Write a sequence for this structure.
């Protein structure tokens, strides 16, 4: 059996961002986002923003990163790829000039044939219908909608005027609101103008000093309106499923919604199951701006952007989840345990093979920087991490599971913390000035296990590897008996002190599953509900499930504390059902389903 554990286990390139909002201060982080995934000539390809290339897999579990031929727009966001006949068509985003398109019969080696574009666009998506007609969708703004147009399949030029196909409705659609847990409605025009004027004053500027085309963008920064972006179209059983992302990539609620229509340019109606890709909780949240693909065996998968956003708003990763269409034609995606190890085969709603063993467990280390204690490596939060006091290979981190378990998987997650190094190349100017690191970096470590804390054995030794996998996954399907796990002999890029956001351990205990959770759920407005969970012994966490019927609890929010949890992703005027499941090291106990 093959397994994955989000984020996708591949090298993520460093970005050297010169943020104009901070006087050009250099912000360094890893980034990949906005994935377009295709199956082409028996192989899977993911094109993601800011990677200088493409990720390739034969089985969806093992991915390799390849550089693409020079001349492609590597510094343009949201690369879009589609298979049309013998070709893969490729383009990316630019607001400053018309966007060209390329096509090739050989993704890795080319050649790529350039097709001159006729207009600028952002977040593009190309779609081939069954009748050979080609359509194109684009848009990424908190002021303007997503547009659609038919293209000439030979020239890829528009055949007609563009039409608006998706607009934001944050007062009716809860998951479109910005903020953590969809907490903020748009500001009034008066509030926006006051914030805009304060912004100018803080920089000793007048409006005449701001280019006219930038004024709406700057005002938009203060509007609290959602970004409506990231279009992707699929057709299923004669219907058109236009997917889109909201409200913004830096929020834990970054998600994908879907509209359904009878024709490629609409009109469209908001699907019953929304947002269909939604992962606000767990270790690594976010599941927005992605793509949906059918695999070699006819199953569906959705890949999307996951959020870190500590060193920079665009510090992001890429996730992959099983998806599909139910008997009523509703597009769904299973993210209930969306950053735990997952078998690639089976029903889309399969439970995880192994349970999380490491959350809240005791951790020790050779040293640490205050504010980055060892315990931060086991608190299931990608935004916090243990940081060693030095960068020598003698530094180590140890997790005590509390007792001996049968361990089947370990995910080693390295973080970056205020990297201090000069930019190794030239910053490219533009709306998001940056340099993408071209060097092939290396991340090395050794993982050992012990049942008594005295005698150690090697689980995995990557102390001499030439790879750079900041979210590496070790699978031991047969299981190993272990209580202590020690990570040592670490070397990370730029000779920084090692930082670990999650030494995550998965397996199965031999004790009792949690008791059935006791909870209540109440709607507190058109767009919000509050779920109150009674604390109980022997429970590590809870999954709040909700949906349009007891059989369609397609949305989930994982939390690790009982008490009150607000969920702000509801749609005005729709009915919901809610269930809370409890989990510990030994398994999952389902709660009773109630009508909201």
């Amino acid at each position: 059996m093959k397994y994955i554990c989000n984020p996708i286990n591949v090298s993520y390139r460093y970005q050297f961002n010169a943020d104009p909002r901070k006087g050009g201060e250099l912000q360094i982080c890893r980034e990949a986002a906005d994935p377009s995934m295709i199956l082409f000539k028996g192989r899977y390809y993911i094109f993601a923003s800011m990677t200088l290339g493409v990720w390739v897999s034969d089985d969806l579990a093992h991915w390799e990163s390849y550089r693409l031929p020079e001349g492609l727009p590597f510094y343009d966001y949201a690369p879009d790829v589609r298979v049309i006949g013998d070709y893969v068509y490729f383009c990316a985003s630019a607001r400053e000039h018309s966007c060209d398109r390329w096509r090739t019969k050989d993704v890795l080696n080319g050649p790529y044939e350039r097709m001159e574009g006729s207009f600028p666009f952002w977040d593009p998506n190309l779609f081939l219908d069954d009748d050979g007609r080609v359509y194109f969708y684009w848009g990424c703004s908190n002021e303007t909608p997503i547009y659609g147009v038919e293209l000439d399949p030979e020239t890829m030029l528009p055949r007609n005027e563009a039409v608006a196909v998706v607009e934001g409705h944050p007062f009716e659609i809860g998951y479109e609101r910005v903020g953590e847990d969809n907490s903020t409605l748009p500001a009034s025009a008066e509030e926006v103008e006051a914030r805009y004027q304060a912004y100018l004053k803080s920089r000793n500027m007048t409006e005449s000093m701001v280019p006219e085309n930038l004024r709406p963008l700057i005002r938009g920064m203060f509007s609290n309106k959602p970004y409506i972006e990231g279009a992707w179209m699929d057709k299923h059983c004669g219907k058109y499923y236009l997917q889109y992302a909201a409200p913004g990539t830096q929020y834990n609620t970054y998600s994908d919604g879907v509209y359904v229509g009878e024709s490629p340019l609409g009109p469209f109606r908001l699907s019953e199951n929304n947002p269909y890709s939604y992962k606000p909780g767990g270790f690594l949240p976010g599941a927005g701006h992605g793509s949906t693909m059918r695999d070699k065996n006819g199953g569906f998968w959705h890949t999307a952007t996951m959020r870190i956003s500590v060193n920079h708003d665009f510090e992001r990763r890429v996730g992959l989840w099983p998806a599909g269409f139910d008997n009523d034609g509703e597009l769904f995606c299973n993210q209930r345990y969306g950053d735990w190890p997952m078998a690639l085969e089976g029903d889309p709603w399969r439970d995880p093979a192994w349970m999380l063993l490491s959350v809240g467990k005791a951790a020790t280390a050779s040293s640490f920087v205050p504010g980055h204690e060892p315990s931060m490596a086991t608190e299931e939060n990608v935004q916090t991490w243990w940081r060693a006091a030095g960068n020598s290979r003698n530094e180590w981190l140890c997790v005590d599971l509390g007792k001996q378990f049968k361990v089947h998987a370990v995910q080693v997650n390295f973080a970056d913390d205020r990297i201090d190094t000069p930019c190794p190349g030239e910053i490219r100017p533009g709306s998001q000035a940056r340099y993408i690191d071209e060097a092939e970096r290396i991340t090395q470590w050794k993982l050992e296990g012990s049942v008594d804390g005295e005698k150690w054995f090697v689980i995995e030794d990557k102390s001499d590897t030439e790879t750079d996998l900041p979210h590496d996954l070790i699978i031991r399907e047969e299981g190993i008996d272990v209580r202590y796990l020690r990570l040592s002999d670490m070397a990370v890029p730029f000779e920084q002190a090692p930082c670990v956001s999650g030494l995550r351990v998965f397996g199965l205990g031999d004790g009792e599953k949690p008791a059935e959770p006791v909870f209540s759920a109440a709607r507190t407005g058109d767009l919000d509900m509050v779920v109150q969970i009674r604390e109980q012994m022997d429970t590590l966490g809870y999954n709040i499930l909700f949906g349009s019927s007891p059989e369609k609890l397609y949305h989930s929010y994982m939390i690790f504390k009982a008490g009150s949890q607000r969920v702000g992703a509801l749609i005005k005027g729709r009915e919901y059902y809610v269930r809370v499941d409890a989990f510990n090291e030994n398994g999952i106990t389902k709660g009773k389903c109630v009508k909201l």
